[in-house]
Amino acid sequence: MTFEQRISAFNELGQFFNFIINNYSTQDKELAEKFEDWKDDAAYAISDAEAYNNWFTKENIILALKNWSEALTTENLHAWTKKYPYAKAPKNVGIIMAGNLPLVGFHDLLSVVISGNNALIKTSSKDDKLIQLVIKFLYSVNEEFKTIIQTVERLEDFEAVIATGSNNTARYFEQYFGKVPHIIRKNRTSVAVLDGLETEEDLKKLGDDLFIYYGLGCRNVTKLYVKDEAQLPNVFEAIFPWGEMVINHPKYANNYDYNRAIYLLGKDEFLDNNFVLLKKDSSLHSPIAVVNYETYTDINEVKHYLAEHNDQIQCVVGNEMKDNPNHVEFGQTQFPKLTDYADNIDTLKFLAEL
């Protein structure tokens, strides 16, 4: 299969996503009929994904599909891949996918296939339904994908590996896959540094960074740095519109109740607005329904600390943090571009060097 055929296939997938979420009608009559034929399959996959993993609400699945529909244009795919060579001899690349967000492993699948390689995929049980829909749709575009993309129970005959997991599983991945070229991803999170000059709109957008996907992604902000605790009421007020949505989710509510009870029993100090807890804590990572915070006096000390802990951080939000290589504008952490790589490791560069 040629490079252009692969580009065209993923562009068609993006159009299909657009059809799912917007009932978009393409002018291509044959394609329009195909999308209609696949409509029930997509609806079933979305419903099945939500039933199997309650964190995957329909709203969050639709958001993920929307993001990908906008990314998978021919123009975007060409711009993204133009500085990398297409594989002359395809390699079998194993992919161990995460499952914390809808289609979170799709970027790895896209990267492997668009670079001219073959994907051996071990899906996560938490996000199997949507990935399977994607794969079956690609098979319908071009039957050659049946030999290029395969799902497996156990990785074998691989020449490289991209594996996403936790800090604990990374140790096993290193041991098992250490003899072949690999990308092994660990736990990461995101932070926001507030200088007190943020607008109300900035803080409202911060709510998106905190609560989209219920805070389950590595691009979700779990730690705030503030100059003064007097800033926190403004944060609470700005993020208030998120309250009803998150606290009415049973799993989120259970985490909120559990963490609140633990902190009360431990006599820990925290701030509470009935849907999220703000806890003074030095840790970058926080539990679900909790956001850690610290105060600072010198912004350079914060910058130095974040630089030292860069291997734990995916995104850094803040008006004073534009010089950080991981800087993202308020409200944009959950809308990555094709060039925004997990763990900030350029996947296409890795694949080009195999």
TrEMBL record:
A Gene Ontology biological process term: bioluminescence
Protein keywords: NADP
GO MF: acyl-CoA dehydrogenase activity
Keyword NADP among record annotations: yes
Pfam families recorded: LuxC
Record bears the keyword NADP: yes
Protein name per Swiss-Prot or TrEMBL: Acyl-CoA reductase
Organism: Empedobacter brevis NBRC 14943 = ATCC 43319
